[in-house]
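A favour between colleagues. Tell me how you read the following sequence-structure pair.

===
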Amino acid sequence: MRCEYNDGLNVDYSGYLHISKRNDINVFMDEDFIPANIKHDLNAASQSNNCGNIRKIAEAVTDTVGSRACLADMDSKTCANF
């Protein structure tokens, strides 16, 4: 599910989670690194197509990990360009 907001925030959740906002926020979490409670909330919001809840979850994630983070398997090289 992809949600785009008027303030430039973008959230993409399709197994992995990517939260971005211009140059201010860039957070990537590989599927295996998303905590179970967050994954549960993301799945519920996706199933109901609720971008309002997705935004709240994204804010909770960035409050926890910060505005710049990449959580992925080191072998995947996903974080190489972060």
About this structure: The chain has two helices and five strands. The mean pLDDT is 93.
